[in-house]
Design a protein that fits this description.
Length: 251
């Protein structure tokens, strides 16, 4: 009986590997086709092709970067910014990506959010990188403390190294906490329509609150059904329908 289950498990693993390989091949083919459309100057078609790939749940810095380029060439500032911002979360130190994002942002009209200096500094690492760094420092500190207990004679020589490790754990942990808070507690709505009117309430008949242009980045304050309450950099607050914006996690 155990042997039968073992062979069944092996067969399922092989089948899963084959399916994964086929899906990866399909994605690569679709990505190549989208790149070909972009190279031919068919930017709207390329943007739609990249979007179809993203809808499958596949994400990569290259895919999002190319999607942002295609959206910008197609005249969709908001969709380009949304793609670049998602790519930036995966590759925060990519100079070309950051330059493209800054260039597109300069085309946006009206009030829009910008990251503060500390957000740019904290965002220089991905959340996974920050977690890994803090974990390494923590285990290094634990190893040093354990070594001091096992070999007391080494304690004086390890004092400064242990203190440095403790400082690094505290510092990296604080940065990680800021990263996590900014990523999970804050959300950004990027306007993806040419021009949209924010309402005073979460319904179509509510009074106009302010006008936002394509590419404007707004802070999300609240959500209700298909609406998000947003605030721009000038402090104006209004509700936008989710079909008018791309809602992204914080930096």
């Amino acid at each position: 009986m155990k042997g039968r289950f073992f062979h069944l498990a092996c067969a399922l693993l092989v089948m899963l590997a084959c399916i994964t390989k086929v899906l990866a091949a399909d994605v690569n083919a679709d990505f190549a086709a989208a790149n070909k459309l972009y190279a031919e100057g068919k930017f709207a078609d390329a943007a739609a092709a990249y979007e179809n790939i993203l809808k499958t749940g596949v994400q990569s810095p290259a895919l999002l970067f190319n999607a942002g380029n295609a959206e910008f060439k197609a005249g969709h500032l908001g969709k380009a910014i949304a793609a670049y911002r998602q790519a930036e979360q995966l590759e925060p130190r990519d100079a070309e990506l950051r330059a493209n994002l800054a260039f597109v942002r300069n085309q946006v009209q009206g009030a829009t959010l910008r990251e503060s200096r500390w957000q740019n500094w904290v965002g220089s690492l991905t959340l996974n990188e920050g977690t890994l760094l803090t974990t390494v420092f923590f285990w290094a500190l634990l190893a040093l403390l354990t070594l001091k207990q096992i070999r007391p004679a080494l304690a004086p020589g390890l004092r400064r190294v242990t203190q440095l490790a403790a400082v690094l754990v505290f510092f990296s942990g604080a940065v990680l906490a800021l990263q996590a808070a900014d990523h999970f507690r804050s959300a950004i709505a990027v306007v993806t329509s040419a021009e949209t009117t924010a309402r005073s309430g979460p319904f179509d008949d509510a009074q106009n609150a302010f006008t936002a242009h394509d590419g404007a980045e707004l802070r999300v304050l609240d959500r209700h059904d298909d609406w998000v309450q947003t605030a721009d950099n000038a402090g104006k607050i209004g509700w936008l329908n989710t079909n008018q914006v791309a809602v992204l996690p914080g930096a």
